[in-house]
Specification:
The complex is a heterodimer.
Chain A (H helix, E strand, L loop, with lengths): L11 H27 L4 H9 L1 H29 L2 H4 L1 H31 L1
Chain B lengths: L1 E7 L9 E7 L8 H11 L18 E4 L2 E4 L5 H4 L4 E5 L6 E3 L2 E2 L2 H9 L19 H5 L18 H5 L6 H12 L7 H8 L13 H5 L6 H16 L1
Parallel strand pairs in B: 1-5
Antiparallel strand pairs in B: 1-2, 3-4, 3-5, 6-7
Helix pairs in contact in B: 3-6, 6-9
The chains are: A mainly alpha, B alpha+beta.
Bound molecules: iron/sulfur cluster (2 copies) and FE2/S2 (inorganic) cluster.
The site of one iron/sulfur cluster has 13 residues of chain B, from helix 8 and helix 9.
Chain lengths: 120, 234
Amino acid sequence: MVTSVTSFGRSGLSDWLLQRVSGVILLAYFLFILAAVAGGVDYASWRALFDQVWVKVFSLMALLSLAAHAWIGLWSVLTDYLTERLMGTTGNVLRISLQLLISLALFIYVVWGVQILWGY
Amino acid sequence: MLQVSIYRYNPETDAKPRMQDFQFDTQGKDLMVLDVLEQIKAQDTTVTFRRSCREGVCGSDGLNINGKNGLACITPLSEVVKNNKLVIRPLPGLPVIRDLIVDMSQFYAQYEKIQPYLINNTPAPAIERLQSPEDRAKLDGLYECILCACCSTSCPSFWWNPDRFIGPAGLLQAYRFLADSRDTATDDRLSRLDDPFSVFRCHGIQNCVNVCPKGLNPTRAIGHIRNMLLTRAT
Ligand code: SF4
Ligand code: SF4
Ligand code: FES
């Protein structure tokens, strides 16, 4: 058992499952937006689309999925390449700094997204 | 003449590794890579490598042969030589002790973690613990592993995290005991594996399946472990 406090759900299985589920949600949302845009949009129709509560909720779901998906994915990449084993202490400093930066960016995205969805 | 290029490195005296070239006359025979090494060693006794059984049973001569991991003793030249060239390096990712010999401690440490022995605390029966032919069949494709490390040292996830990712060889063995009807520690075994590294660093790249000289499939075993974890937790 390898413990790690920075992984998303602490358990390997929950991270793995969440990565799959969020991937499916993102795919569905992406297709949905693609379909909406494909027919051609103007301000009024776009506005009407996002005035529906279910679209807002779906968008929020996609946004949260994006944050979780990005965290799990980037966390894996960082813990592969930026490690004490490969780079010494520099690896630890770089990894933790980038983890902070990424979590801050994702947090801002989520808050900003919520503001856009419900703020207007 | 076959062009043979061998990785040479003695950490005690050399600043860095080098490749040494040899001209080798196969006399038209399709030798095994190990035969070539043995004959070169007869000329230059300082060339160092491990081997024992010379028939693909002991797992001691896992090498990187023309870019692909395999057992030198059962790899015929015809299978690997291209453009008359044979490049032999140690298994990638592990520390080199000398020339083609790597330090396998990390590999064995991962193997040790999965508790590679039957755990059953119920009183032992008078003769032996029986198993039905069907249950025994579940161990096929698992017990044959000879721990040559060809798979784990071809796995990028193992290169980056040899201290935290069990690696395909260890996981194949982990499943071998999870699948054994006589073992009673299934739940405990699974608990020890459910972290983000031990099993889940496997990204299904399948290099392991591609190189296993015994034709085993660690990726499938890893999939089974994941499913066991999933059914247990949901
Ligand atoms: S699974 Fe195959 S490649 Fe891996 S250690 Fe066992 S025999 Fe060698
Ligand atoms: S399938 Fe998994 S264990 Fe096998 S080489 Fe790929 S990442 Fe490694
Ligand atoms: S020498 Fe034993 S497996 Fe090759």
